[in-house]
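User: Design a sequence. Structure:
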């Protein structure tokens, strides 16, 4: 429902809880049509499931995909002071300029798959607090970041991809995954932009310290986002939630995007029903998070860039699925014997 908004975390969660589910009539129509198309049953494999899922969220048994939106959110992280990334924090702002000038991978992938791309830099001059010392954000700060994401979604888009840029944010994502799914810090900390063995050991220690400093984040998606997340993670969560309320299908990107989305799933069962996993990142913990969420990735390309790049690539797969579903002839139309 367009026009809804929130000013507290409680109101945000209420909007998520009230969101309508998929259109079951459109789903049934799409299933019916899928069974009549000129192919052996099931021969388009996952493309068939994708088209039916997409139809159910578009509310149209014969859907179209013509107006995809890619949004890249950027944020800076206080925890970078601990030396958890292979790159310096100023790269976040430098890459924002690169996005604005069209020079990043996501610019090219958005263009290649006909998506409009927007970039939102969130208070880069004010990094979030180092979460090993206490919560990364206050309630006001996380609400502001959620709202940036919420308001960035174009309600007329027919598909959303959320991407991120934030040096240090794989540490944030690892801490969130540890808080939501348990296990050991080492299960979730990975090499990110390419830290060496000593860097990985430090990062694992930082994730452990983050949970000790924020005990309330354990098992609480919204509190994990506030205490361990960054502004770009909260903005992605806000955008994905808005898409849920607007019934806009979403393709999830890599480890950081999926960790942000996992916070919504923990807060509200079914909150990610309008999403598919675009790819599985080379960041090892991404596959584990996807498994926890019950999401099968569409692509496995060895990518670990972020920016929404893996999800943008998967727009091509979804476009293929929708084109076949809505454009193919039925057996009756083509005069083909249906066995
Ligand atoms: O999307 C992923 O799975 C992914 C995996 C590793 C790194 N990244 C990107 O790299 C940055 C974070 O890496 P790091 O090492 O600084 O934590 C951030 O800008 C992400 O977009 C992204
Ligand atoms: C150069 C660079 C580009 C990125 N894009 C997303 N994360 C990134 C991290 C780095 C270091």
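Assistant: Done.
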């Amino acid at each position: 429902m367009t026009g809804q908004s929130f000013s507290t975390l409680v109101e945000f969660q209420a909007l998520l809880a009230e969101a309508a589910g998929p259109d079951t009539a459109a789903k049934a129509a799409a299933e019916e049509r899928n069974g009549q198309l000129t192919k052996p049953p099931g021969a388009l494999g996952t493309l068939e499931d994708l088209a039916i899922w997409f139809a159910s969220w578009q509310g149209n048994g014969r859907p179209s995909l013509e107006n995809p939106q890619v949004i890249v959110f950027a944020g800076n992280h206080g925890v970078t002071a601990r030396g958890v990334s292979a790159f310096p924090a100023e790269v976040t702002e430098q890459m924002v300029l690169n996005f604005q000038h069209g020079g990043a991978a996501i610019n090219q992938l958005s263009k290649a798959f006909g998506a409009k791309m927007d970039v939102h830099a969130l208070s880069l001059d004010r990094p979030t607090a180092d979460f090993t010392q206490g919560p990364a954000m206050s309630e006001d700060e996380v609400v502001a970041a959620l709202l940036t994401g919420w308001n960035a979604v174009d309600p007329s888009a027919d598909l959303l991809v959320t991407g991120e840029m934030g040096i240090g944010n794989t540490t944030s994502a690892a801490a969130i995954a540890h808080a939501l799914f348990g296990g050991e810090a080492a299960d979730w900390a990975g090499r990110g932009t390419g830290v060496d063995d000593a860097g990985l050991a430090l990062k694992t220690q930082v994730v452990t310290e983050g949970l000790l400093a924020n005990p309330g984040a354990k098992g609480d998606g919204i509190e994990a986002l506030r205490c361990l997340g960054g502004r770009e993670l909260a903005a992605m969560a806000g955008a994905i939630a808005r898409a849920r309320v607007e019934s806009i299908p979403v393709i999830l990107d890599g480890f950081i995007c999926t960790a942000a989305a996992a916070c919504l799933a923990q807060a509200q069962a079914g909150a990610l029903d309008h999403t598919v996993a675009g790819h599985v990142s080379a960041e090892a913990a991404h596959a584990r998070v996807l498994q926890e969420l019950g999401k099968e990735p569409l692509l496995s390309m060895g990518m670990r860039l972020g920016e929404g790049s893996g999800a943008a690539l998967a727009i091509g797969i979804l476009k293929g699925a929708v084109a076949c579903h809505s454009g193919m002839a039925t057996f009756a139309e083509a005069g083909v014997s249906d066995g």
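The two ends are 44 Å apart (CA to CA). The longest helix spans residues 309-327.
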